[in-house]
């Protein structure tokens, strides 16, 4: 029975009508990636590089970072790897980076905004990534993008670093986690190779609810129809330019969330290792047509509760 389970974990997430969705893991270290592959992951859709800065009390230099990225690439043996550049700020604080205290850190110098102001952080990270990319496929992703200008500036900096190292070009993507980015997806898609939707932040910024607020966090519902409408819009924008769209926020690892995201046209779901087998099994029990119908209905209700009620149409997966 265990062998049977192990075999089924490795089966692709193909719907009953033959549509396959890529299933990836959110992991930060090579040893976790190995476990994710055993659990059925087909790659790493989100490597959060903050951990390199958080696990120690000094800033990791280019060499430290290169070793970490190279170890991850090698652990994956050619499977896809999306590495996200440093996403510090908001709830993610790094005392030794000596960042200014802000009154509204979630609306402050976070993610790509920090990268654009701190070449001393961006350049060593990009150099380490390009060097690691010589050992296997790496895709570079920027967090907290809210404008086209940010993308153009970051791409120019990338090109300078790449040329200095004489490294091959790598695919470049952005997180879609700010409503402006979702609304401008058709424009942004002209300038990048892929999107990955961060439903945690997209929910917080769409509903204007601090995702950690002691009283309001419950209102931060990623199943809210407003969030799903932004996902729909993001997919439509990406399609205009033939780009793929993933989701690496928490919604991708929830059964109903995954079902809706696939129904909305998302190509890849990246989640915690522990969610992989349930999501794969669920998707394998439904047709894409069913999931598209579910998604259409979820876009046409008033509340997150009504979206949740639609989940009754899904066939449960036995534990
Ligand atoms: C997100 O915002 O959904 C996301 C994946 O990024 P993080 O949770 O690291 O902010
Ligand atoms: Mg985020």
UniProtKB/TrEMBL annotation:
Compartments reported by the entry: Cytoplasm
Annotated TM spans: none
Top-level taxon of origin: Bacteria
Similarity field: Belongs to the PEP-utilizing enzyme family.
UniProt protein name: phosphoenolpyruvate--protein phosphotransferase
């Amino acid at each position: 029975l265990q062998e049977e389970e192990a075999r089924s974990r490795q089966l692709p997430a193909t719907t009953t009508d033959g549509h396959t969705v890529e299933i990836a893991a959110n992991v930060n270290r090579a040893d976790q990636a190995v476990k994710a592959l055993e659990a059925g992951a087909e790659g790493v859709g989100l490597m959060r590089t903050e951990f390199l800065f958080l696990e120690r009390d000094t800033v990791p230099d280019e060499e430290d970072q290169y070793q970490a990225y190279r170890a991850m690439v090698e652990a994956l043996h050619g499977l896809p790897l999306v590495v996200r550049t440093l996403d510090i700020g908001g709830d993610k604080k790094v005392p030794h980076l000596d960042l200014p205290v802000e009154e509204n850190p979630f609306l402050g110098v976070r993610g790509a905004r920090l990268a654009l102001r701190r070449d001393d952080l961006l350049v060593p990270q990009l150099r380490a990534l390009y060097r690691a990319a010589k050992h296997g496929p790496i895709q570079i992703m920027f967090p907290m993008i809210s404008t086209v200008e940010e993308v153009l500036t970051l791409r120019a900096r990338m090109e300078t670093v790449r040329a200095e190292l004489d490294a091959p070009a790598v695919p470049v993507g952005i997180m879609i986690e700010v409503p402006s980015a979702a609304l401008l997806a058709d424009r942004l898609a002209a300038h990048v190779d892929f999107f990955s939707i961060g439903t945690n932040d997209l929910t917080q910024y769409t509903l204007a609810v601090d995702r950690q607020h002691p009283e309001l966090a419950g209102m931060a519902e990623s199943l809210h129809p407003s969030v799903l409408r932004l996902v729909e819009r993001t997919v439509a924008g990406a399609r205009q330019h033939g780009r793929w769209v993933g989701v690496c926020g928490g919604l991708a690892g929830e059964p109903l969330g995954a079902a809706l995201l696939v129904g909305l046209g998302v190509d890849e779901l990246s989640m915690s290792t522990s969610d992989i087998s349930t999501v794969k099994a669920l998707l394998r029990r439904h047709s894409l047509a069913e999931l598209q119908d579910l998604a259409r209905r979820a876009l046409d209700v008033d509340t997150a509760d009504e979206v949740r009620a639609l989940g009754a149409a899904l066939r449960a997966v036995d534990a």
